[in-house]
Amino acid sequence: MSKTLIYSLILILIISSFIFFISGCGGEGTSSITPSINQSEDTGDAEINVDWPDEGKEVTAQVIHPDVVQIVISITGKWIKGTREEIIYKGTTTKKISALPSGENQFEFTGMATGGNVLSHRITNVTIKKKETVKVSVHLGVSILDTGFFPQTIPVSKGDTLFWKNNDSVVHNVVADNSSFNSGDIAPGAEWSRKFDSEGTFTYKCTKTGKAGTVTTGIAPTPTVVPGMVAIAGGTFQMGSNTHSIEQPIHSVTVSSFSMGKYEVTNTEFCAFLNSQGNQTEGGTTWMDIKDDIFCGITGGPGAGTFTVKSGYENHPAVYVSWYGTVAYCNWLSEQNSLTPCYGPKDNRGNDPSVWRTKNGYRLPTEAEWEYACRAGSTTDYYWGNTVDGSYCWYFVNSDTGNGNNHQIAGQKLPNTFGLYDMSGNVDEWCNDWGGDYGAGAITDPAGPNSGIYRVKRGGSWADEYGYYCRSAARVYGTHYVPLGGNPDEKGASIGFRIVKGDGGNPGNGYSFLRKWGSHYALYSTRRLATDSSGNIYVSDLDNHRIQKYNSSGGFITEWGTFGTGDGQFDMLKGITLDNFDNVYVTEGNNARIQKFTSSGVFITKWGSGGHGDGQFYGLTGIAIDSSGNVYVSDHSNNRIQKFTSSGVFITKWGSGGNGDGQFHGPEGITVDTSDNVYVADSSNDRIQKFTSSGVFITKWGGIYGSNDGEFLESIGIAIDMSDNVYVTDAYSNRIQKFTSSGVFITKWGSYGKNDGQFDGRDGITVDFSGNVYVVDNFNERIQKFTSSGSFITKWSIYGNSNTDGKFDDPYFLTQDSSGNVYVSDCFNNRIQKFTSSGVFITKWGSHGMDDGQFHDPTGIAIDSFGTVYVSDYSNGRIQKFTSSGVFITKWGSGLPYGIAVDSSGNIYVTDIDNDRIQKFTSSGVFITNWGSYGSNDGQFFDPTGITVDTSGNVYVSDSGNYRIQKFTSSGVFITKWGSSGTNDGQFKYPKGITLDTADNVYVADYFGNVYISETSEHIQKFTSSGVFITKWGSNGNSDGQFYSPTGIIVDSSGNVYVVDSNNDRIQVFAPSP
């Protein structure tokens, strides 16, 4: 956790060392630069180009010009990151410093290149000769195009000046509907501005196009905030650690199911609350400290409707918030969403769990809930392992504390297995509990002492020097760790919060999607790939409608996307690229648009539609980004290139159909070199064309359909390395060709085949910062990695075969042991896979064959109270028995065993599908009894499949061909039945898997012996043990909560339902809805 006093002093020193100031700049280690100045005749602007030196060296630049109006500082260079040198930033970044004071004709600045930072982000002010400070200003603006005003509606504060800029090639105007303002003609490229001194709503239009816009001033309406929540299944874990005395003793804790905020509460969310309620005083302090510093993201106040979020801080965590401010926010948010608040009124919040647990509103997490959610099933110091890892958390070493991004945009790091972001690091998070010592015994739903002096904070922050306090078990309260303690009125730059929601003591009958894992194809019909500054690989997975992210060795990191037209959904993924900040841009063919995401898949923005106009597309393919963040797109069937800003504002276009210079026939891949020249794979013209960033033709090569050096059989993918060498995937000759930036042939590699270095239909290609080349080998269903000269390095499969851990090919049934581990029969891969309850792969065993431990279509799987695993080896006609780690014990049987279950005495029940009967054995395979025959009468079967046993020893069978469930005693005496053919409630269409919930959770007072049945009508139904219908969920499809032939099903001790979604080759988990 943050050592507030110490770190405050450190921060002051760090920040002060990056202020820009006047300098004569002599002395050791200083290199003086006299830059060339490019002056515009129209505006009198000047430009300084600075090449930063090595780490620790200072650089000075000076401009002397009599008419300087605006200074543009461009910075390029190589930066030092950690202990090894990496190029993490390339190209040029421009920062404008506006309006030097009258009479000044000279200014200087001094900066220093430092480890792990891009210095262009540190230029926040300059100091000129008279010691006057000129701040960089970002003004409010509306872009004018022939298609309308962007944004169409913009809120401003009273007294703000709003600018309209004509980004079109023709004249426009801005005319108020009430005649209160009229811009007159605004020429192409020109701006017009107006100051809004009065409150109200102002509508206006361009009289030349008829397009309309709106400006709102004054108190903005309070938006309803609906937070993104993740359902957390309850369970038992070991809380605490032996690392520090206040984390001891380690003890067993059980928590009930709840939902938790996916991210920490952001400035945008908290600002909406302040604009509704104002910044009130409680506990002797305001709910939030509004500070004019680099940490606070909100300005204004203290009254309602006066707060705004600083530009660029919208998705940062809200900081400087007291504990009182967090619970006030929770109550307000509950009321906004028609829920019952958990806390009392201001100055009388209360802390009685017997009261707030009966409410269904939002609240702070208890310590136990927080640690349980943070660990996400892990037992290590951090939820990813035992050492700090900057890919999961922000802490002092990897946080840019000098430029205001000290707490970084939420969601930029990898989530834990529950899908929660920034549980470690970023900001300390307030919990509900008063601080106090742990007890030694097992406990359920602890909520801390009833009273105290200090509230608890968890998670560590960006100010944690070594990440020590980012551990899952680390806690802060009182004088423990932080000198200032955890008084409820404490506020700080590294303190924020996230929220939870319980069920209010009234769990419903519904079920909500919780998580999933597995797939048949790791990647299927892949098209393009790109690499980020850390060497991670992003792949557009066309037929699975998703983006997948891997490390440079092929290790899976994350994925996002489903089929559809919504934000974050895809239809015909094509091109993919990343900007200098590792934001991900993708093109979609059928949705005819560009989508932009963070590196972890959080949606940012989108633009585009189908058509032939500016900003419209017809067959999108390649995409690339230059050093200024401008986006270039191959508009395939329109035979042109379009250029946009990073937010999607159209800039220019070039190209038409044909084979002349600057014409295209199906442009595909596109890339940009270090000078921002644009290279296009002109696919059906079998050539590469090179242009300036504005589309002026420079050169071309190829143009001959052939397989000689420099010829192409349809050029598709194109990439460029840091030396501006060009790599092209030559589609039908199954090879890679490498050229200089002017088109001189260097080398080639590849041929048709399946061996290393051979290809069968390659498409996407990218080059990392070390010069390694990654190629999508489509029909071989893999990615191959090479050196820059074509030497093979490694490969990884993109098909879910028997060599791919965690992927499935027609999984059938699953079971769960007493520790919550899940075992899955991976039928067509002829193996068993074992996972944690959150889907983390543990082990596997089996292969195709008839020997002991081999399988031919394993289907049913069950586990006894000792952890022994029984498998129905269907096509081998036998039962096999294993230890929990897959060691073979014994086997028995013949015929076609399908489903399998174990009772509390260890007896084995098997559905003998070929003989339409049930067989019962001892745990060692000795036959006990059987019952059943072919037919539709009571006790007869037509394809019995799933089977399960309740706590009284009664046996339930999915009588699939008869569309019903039958219930028997343990000796086979018929008890009851229900079901018929159909899709109504209580009817079935070939039911298969069947399971029961259990009484293993000691506090399950409302236990009914509910039966869950999965069926091929693609939904789950739930009944009482006597067959009375309760609820159902699911439909046909491959999105979360949809199924394609669900088969196996189990329910854990917390009531979470695990379903084998067979033909989607995955496991889905559902939690009872609060």
What's the total count of β strands? 85
Shape: globular
What's the gyration radius in Å?
Answer: 32 Å
Return the average pLDDT rounded to an integer.
74
Largest sheet: 4 strands, mixed
Low-confidence stretches: 1-139, 219-226, 479-485, 505-509, 520-526, 798-802, 999-1017
**Count of helical regions:** 5
Given the helix and strand composition, which structural class is it? mainly beta
| Span of the ends, CA to CA | 32 Å
Strand order, largest beta sheet: 12-11-14-16
Helix amount: under 10%
- Please report which band the strand proportion falls in: under 5%, 5-15%, 15-25%, 25-35%, 35-45% or over 45%: 35-45%
Explained architecture:
The protein has five helices and 85 strands. The strands form 25 sheets. A four-stranded mixed β-sheet has the order 12-11-14-16, with no helix packed on it. A hairpin with a 4-residue loop joins strand 76 and strand 77. The relative contact order is 0.06.
How do the helices and strands line up, and which of them pair or pack?
Blueprint: H1 4-16, E1 30-33, E2 46-51, E3 58-64, E4 70-76, E5 79-81, E6 84-86, E7 93-98, E8 106-112, E9 125-127, E10 133-135, E11 140-145, E12 148-150, E13 153-156, E14 161-166, E15 175-176, E16 191-195, E17 200-205, E18 212-217, E19 229-232, E20 235-239, E21 251-255, E22 258-261, H2 267-277, E23 281-282, E24 285-286, E25 298-300, E26 307-309, H3 323-336, H4 353-356, E27 362-363, H5 367-375, E28 428-434, E29 443-444, E30 455-458, E31 475-476, E32 495-496, E33 500-501, E34 511-517, E35 526-531, E36 537-541, E37 546-550, E38 556-560, E39 562-563, E40 569-570, E41 573-578, E42 584-588, E43 593-597, E44 603-607, E45 609-610, E46 616-617, E47 620-625, E48 631-635, E49 640-644, E50 650-654, E51 667-672, E52 678-682, E53 687-691, E54 697-702, E55 715-720, E56 726-730, E57 735-739, E58 745-749, E59 762-767, E60 773-777, E61 782-786, E62 792-797, E63 811-816, E64 822-826, E65 831-835, E66 841-845, E67 858-863, E68 869-873, E69 878-882, E70 888-892, E71 897-902, E72 908-912, E73 917-921, E74 927-931, E75 944-949, ...
Parallel strand pairs: 1-3, 2-4, 11-14, 13-18, 21-29, 28-32, 39-40, 45-46
Antiparallel strand pairs: 3-8, 4-7, 5-6, 9-10, 11-12, 14-16, 15-17, 17-18, 19-22, 20-21, 22-33, 23-24, 25-26, 27-33, 28-30, 30-31, 34-85, 35-36, 36-37, 37-38, 41-42, 42-43, 43-44, 47-48, 48-49, 49-50, 51-52, 52-53, 53-54, 55-56, 56-57, 57-58, 59-60, 60-61, 61-62, 63-64, 64-65, 65-66, 67-68, 68-69, ...
